[in-house]
Write a structure and sequence with these properties.
It contains 18 helices and 15 strands. It has about 450 residues and is α/β, with parallel strands linked by helices. The strands form four sheets. It has a seven-stranded mixed beta sheet, with helices on both faces. It has a four-stranded parallel beta sheet with strand order 8-7-6-9. Strands 2-3 form a two-stranded antiparallel ribbon. Helix 4 packs across helix 15 and helix 11 crosses helix 12. Bound molecules: pyridoxal-5'-phosphate.
Amino acid sequence: MDTKITLAESEMPTRWYNIVPDLPEPPPPVLHPGTHEPVGPDDLAPLFPMALIMQEVSQDSFVDIPEEVLDIYRLWRPSPLYRAHRLEKALDTPARIYYKYEGVSPAGSHKPNTSVPQAFYSAQEGVKKITTETGAGQWGSALAFACSLFGLDCEVWQVRASYDLKPYRKIMMEAWGATVHPSPSDLTSAGRAILEDHPDSPGSLGIAISEAVEAAAPHPEIRYALGSVLNHVLMHQTIIGEEALLQLAKVDEQPDLLVGCTGGGSNFGGLSFPFLREKMAGNMNPTIRCVEPAACPSLTKGEYRYDFGDTAGMAPLVKMHTLGHDFVPDPIHAGGLRYHGMAPLVSHLYELGLVEAEAIHQKECFDAGIAFARTEGILPAPEPTHAIAAAVREANRCKETGEEKVILTALCGHGHFDLASYEAYLSGELIDYDYPEAAVAEAMERVPVIAD
Ligand SMILES: *Cc1c(COP(=O)(O)O)cnc(C)c1O
C-alpha cells in the first residue's frame, strides 16, 4: 500500500515550466500605473532584478533552475506526495486522495520555492536589501529565510490583522534577520494615508504591497519581491507539479481532479500548470479547480478587468479578477487568501475555461482541516483547508455515485503558527463572514476604466 511516494534527490526536476507559450491565447499585457501603456522591462527595473523581469515576459517553455538554487531546494526537496488512506477511510469514499506536502520546507510552506530564486537573482545583481509584504507571515518568513542564506537585508510589512494574531511568525522572520513592521505603518505615505482615515485598519495585502513598493522603488540597492500573483512566481512554483507528475506516474495514477486553494494563485499554479500542459497535449484529462474563501472570492465574484496590484495604485495595472484594489477583506483566518485580485495567469485560464473555481466558507474549511489532522496527522495551515474542504466535498460526491476518482491537491503549508485560529475554531468562536457585496461594489467604483 503506497502511502508516501518519494523521489530520489537525483530525480528532482531541474527546470521550471513556463505555461505562457503553450496557451491558446496570450495573456493581456501589463500596463503602466500612470500612463496606462504596456510596460517594458525598464519600467519594472526600479522594482525587480532584471533576471526576474525577463522571466516575467519569457516565451521559453522551460527555464533551467540555477545550480545555487537547486542546492538550497535539496534541503527539503523533492517534497513527499502522500495518499490520504486514512482520510479516505474516514470519509468512506471510493475516491483516491493524494496530497503534495509543501510544509516540509524550512519556512513551513511552498513559498521558499520562489523566495530562494528571488533572493538569488537579487544578490547576483548587487541588491543589498529586499522589501516585501506578508499576509499570514508565510511569505515574509520564506523571504527572510532566503535573504539570510544570500546575505541580504530583508524588511517586511506584515498585515496588521496577522501581525496581532500570529506573533510567532514575526519572531521567526526576526530570527532569520528580517525587520518587521505592522501594516498600515507610519513609515510610508501609503500607510499614513490609510491610518489617517482608519486608525484601526486591520490592513490588507494591497496596503502592505504599497508600503513595501514605496520603500524600495527610489533606492537602486533595494528591490521589492512579491510572493504570489506574478508570472515568474507561478513559474518557480511549478517544481511542485513537475515532481507530482513523476510521483503519480510511479504509482501508475492520473488525476481526475486537481484542487488548490487560491490567494494570489501561486501554489495552485505551481501544482496545476504542469498537469495543464499534459492536458493540453492530450495526455490526461483532469478537471482543475481553484478554491477561494467565500469572504474574498475574486474569481467567482470579481470582475475580469485591469486593476492595480496594490491599494495605493503604485504597482502596475494587470488584467485580473478583482474585488477592487482598495477593498479590505474581512479578517478571515486564512490570511494568505485575503487578496483583492487573482494572478493574471490564473484569471486568464479561468476566462479561457481551462480551470474552474468554487468559494467555501471558513467554518467548513476548518471542519475539513480538523478531520484531516485527526486522520492524516498533519495540522494544515488555514489556507489549504480550503483545498481539503473541496476535496472532501468531491470525495462525498464520489461516495454517492460510486466513482473512483483520483483527487490531487497541494497541502501547501502546515498550521503550526496558526494555533490561535484553531483555538477560535475549537472553542466555537469562529464565524463565517457573508460575501461583502456593498463593500466590493464601492471598491469597484474606484477601479480605473481602461479601454481594451
Ligand atoms: C501564501 C500562501 C497561500 C496563498 O498564496 P497562493 O499564491 O495562492 O499560493 C496559501 N497557502 C499558504 C500556506 C501560503 O503560504
